[in-house]
Structure formats: structure tokens, C-alpha cells
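Page 37, continued from 36.
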């Protein structure tokens, strides 16, 4: 019987590529150790939230959502989310595949939109304090023409931005006097989006919130938390954010949730967002939940800390051809659809043509091995997800 060392030798001789992966791992020991420590911390936080919500197998069933006290696992899932993110309340909903089913989030953009419409009214101003928002929010805000389909601008909400500083971080000096009498809500995008900058830390977000609240205590702070969940050991509500929102096919879905989004934060703000999603008076109490989805939500959330510990990277390629070539390499290395070739094209919500490489088990899931990027200067590709870091090792 071969020894493990002997077996590893023959494996590396047979597959030349993995030899480079093994060498790279040896050089990254301290970085991997730091990630492992973060995963332990966040997994413990998730585990305690599950235990606090008394999650049981009976919570994995569905419900019609139109009777009293029959929410099944939905209430326990909301409770677990709130606890994990340090929020007073949360609402977690899946995408509806039946047009007659109400009260569902079908993407992170949808959840963020519900949150913004819940906080803002005609005559108010929305202030984006981290520069331009992600592409899919431009039509929501009215920054890009929506054709009169109901953007915030269509409803009389003004919009203003505080540009980022030269180093790509928040412009602290400009932020000191940015809040005006009409500013009702400040929007902070935690991730870099499609910008070539570092993402914001939770401590930076907390500092920004203090500056905003000092100028106007009644100004709500909404954080676009997409791609930020479990990247650190704390979350924005723990440093004063009134609301956060994100997608379940990104970090908190753990590569298992097939769809959906969430909102968490102050109880009153979450209730307002829930009323926007359903109707005033109904809030979180109505809306059906299919029985085949709750287990995926709970299990995905439990695994999410580990999944987030695997990969989030951005690479600036400099040319149209290199961007396409990189995405083709990712697609070739995917477990699903490896034989297909990704093609750039127009995508709803995006201003530029975008290319996506995502041979994923959940269609569009960026928590699995995937990458995407807009076809515009400086031709940056954003790599995220993966069930294990070795997937990216094999891609490279």
C-alpha cells in the first residue's frame, strides 16, 4: 500500500498543474491561516444564532403564508439572520416562480430597492457617500434614464454623490459637510462593485456613520452589503447602520441558496421595507414559502462563512481580448457547462456590455466559481466564489 507522500508524488507527476498549486500554498501559509481564523470566528457566530433560534428539521417545510402563525421556518430564518448580523430584525425571502405568490426578493438589487423606497419620500435627498453606486442601481436612482418606470427620481427623490478620494477610499473631509437639511438617507456601498478600488471595512463604515449622524441624527444610513457578508468578524448593523441588504446567491447563500435576498437592521426600518415589498398592514406576515427551499436557505447560511473564506479577487487585464480570454479559461475550468464559451452582451440593469463566466450549479450564483466584468476601460474582471480555493488554483 502506497504511503500518502508516495501517492502525492505520483499525483503531482501525473498532473503537472497541481504542482504549482502546492508550491503556491506553501508560500501563502500565513494568509491562509488568517482566513481560517476568520472562518472559525464567523462560523461560531452563525452556530450560536441557529441555536438561539432553536432551528429544527421542522423548519425546513413550506407554508402558504396566508394563515396566522404558520410561517414555518421563515420566522426562524429571519431571527437567525438578525442575530448573525447584529440587527434588531431581518426579512429573508426567495424569488417567486409563481406570479401569484407575493412578498419575495428576486435579487440583491431588488432588496436594496425595497429598502431605499421604504426610507425615502418625495422631496427627500439620497446621498451616496462612497462614489457612484453599482451599475444595476443607476436606473433605480434615476441616475440613468429608466423610461418613466418608477425610479426614485420619478417619485421626486433627489440624488447626490460624494466622490471617492484619490486613494479610492472615502473622502473624509468632504463627508464632514456633505449632509444637507433635505438629506434623508445616506447610501454606503461596501464592496468595490465594478470600480478599481478596495472595498470598505466595517470600521470605516462605522466611522462614516458617526460623521453622518453627527450632522443629522435623523438621517438613515443604508448599506449595500453585497459581497461583504462574513468577510470580517463584524457587520454594518453592529456599528450603527440602520439597514443593510444583499443577495442570497452571493455570500450568505453558501453556494446552496438558489435565489432570493435579505434586508436586516432596525426593526422599524425592516418593517417599512417589508411593507414596501408586500403592502402596509401585511408586512412580513403574509406570502408563501415553497417546501423545497427552506432547507437550502438554512444550510446555505450555515456554510456561508466557510464559502466566503475561499475567494474574492479582482484582476485588471488592460484589454478587451485579455478579459475575454480570462473568462473563457474560468468557464473551461467550471464543473457545469465547461464546453461552452462565454459571450459578452447586454444585460438588464447594466450600462455596458458584460461578460459572465459561471459554470455553476445555481444559475447566476456568484458564490460559486465565477467571474464577470464590464467591457469598458480598464477591462477589470471580478473573480468571486468557489466551493474551495483549489478551484481557482486549477483555473490559474
Amino acid at each position: 500500500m502506497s504511503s500518502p507522500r508516495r501517492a502525492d508524488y505520483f499525483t503531482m507527476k501525473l498532473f503537472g498543474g497541481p504542482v504549482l498549486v502546492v508550491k503556491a500554498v506553501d508560500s501563502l501559509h500565513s494568509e491562509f491561516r488568517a482566513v481560517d481564523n476568520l472562518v472559525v470566528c464567523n462560523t461560531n457566530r452563525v452556530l450560536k444564532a441557529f441555536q438561539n433560534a432553536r432551528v429544527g428539521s421542522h423548519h425546513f417545510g413550506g407554508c402558504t403564508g396566508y394563515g396566522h402563525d404558520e410561517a414555518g421556518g421563515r420566522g426562524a430564518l429571519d431571527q437567525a439572520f438578525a442575530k448573525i448580523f447584529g440587527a434588531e430584525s431581518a426579512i429573508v425571502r426567495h424569488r417567486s416562480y409563481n406570479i401569484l405568490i407575493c412578498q419575495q426578493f428576486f435579487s440583491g438589487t431588488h432588496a436594496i430597492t425595497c429598502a431605499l423606497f421604504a426610507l425615502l419620500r418625495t422631496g427627500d435627498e439620497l446621498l451616496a457617500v462612497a462614489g457612484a453606486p453599482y451599475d444595476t442601481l443607476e436606473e433605480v436612482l434615476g441616475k440613468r434614464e429608466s423610461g418613466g418606470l418608477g425610479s426614485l427620481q420619478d417619485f421626486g427623490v433627489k440624488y447626490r454623490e460624494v466622490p471617492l478620494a484619490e486613494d479610492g477610499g472615502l473622502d473624509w473631509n468632504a463627508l464632514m459637510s456633505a449632509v444637507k437639511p433635505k438629506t434623508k438617507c445616506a447610501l454606503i456601498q461596501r464592496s468595490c462593485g465594478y470600480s478599481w478600488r478596495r472595498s470598505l471595512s466595517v470600521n470605516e463604515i462605522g466611522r462614516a456613520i458617526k460623521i453622518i449622524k453627527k450632522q443629522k441624527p435623523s438621517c438613515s444610513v443604508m448599506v449595500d452589503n453585497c459581497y461583504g457578508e462574513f468577510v470580517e468578524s463584524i457587520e454594518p448593523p453592529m456599528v450603527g447602520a440602520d439597514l443593510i441588504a444583499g443577495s442570497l446567491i452571493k455570500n450568505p447563500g453558501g453556494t446552496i441558496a438558489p435565489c432570493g435576498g435579505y434586508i436586516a437592521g432596525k426593526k422599524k426600518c425592516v418593517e417599512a421595507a417589508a411593507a414596501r415589498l408586500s403592502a402596509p398592514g401585511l408586512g412580513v406576515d403574509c406570502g408563501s414559502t415553497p417546501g423545497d427551499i427552506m432547507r437550502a436557505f438554512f444550510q446555505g447560511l450555515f456554510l456561508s462563512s466557510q464559502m466566503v473564506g475561499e475567494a474574492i479577487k479582482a484582476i485588471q487585464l488592460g484589454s478587451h481580448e485579455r478579459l475575454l480570454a480570462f473568462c473563457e479559461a474560468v468557464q473551461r475550468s467550471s464543473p457545469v457547462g465547461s464546453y461552452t464559451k462565454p459571450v459578452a452582451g447586454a444585460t438588464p440593469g447594466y450600462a455596458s456590455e458584460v461578460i459572465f463566466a459561471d459554470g455553476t450549479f445555481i444559475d447566476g450564483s456568484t458564490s460559486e466559481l465565477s467571474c464577470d466584468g464590464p467591457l469598458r476601460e480598464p477591462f477589470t474582471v471580478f473573480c468571486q466564489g468557489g466551493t474551495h480555493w483549489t478551484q481557482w488554483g486549477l483555473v490559474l
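Residues 29-52 form the longest helix (24 residues). Flag for discussion at group meeting. The longest strand covers residues 183-189.
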